[in-house]
Amino acid sequence: MKKGVKDETWVDHEIFTSKGRKIKHPWITITDNSSFLFNAAFVHLSNLSKNTHVVLGFSRKKKAITFQFTSDPQALGALTFVLQAGRASIQLRSFFNYHLLNVSDWVGRYIPEKVRIPKTGEVWAINLESKLPEK
To answer: Is 10 among the domain residues?
Structure first.
């Protein structure tokens, strides 16, 4: 190729800098078998790998499920979650049954957000009325 002539066929060239899939958006998925799945972006964003337990909450008025992560297994309501391959999950049919939630109505992906709750503090929450559209 002549000096000073641009080769436009390489405009999409990108250097590979890390292995693994890059997920830009954090989300929490409710599955049809009553599980909560936390994607790798959420695990990273929330420093979930530093914790071992989650305390769940529910507000019927706000139609929101809250997640407070802790490394204290003695915390009130603390439940162990599974961290595997950069993602996390917990299966909780009893949570849905206790709150009289038909899990099939809520299956899907939700974008979590941090909220401050009086007497509880800052927690992650998903609004059940804000399900992401299916692909």
So the answer is: no
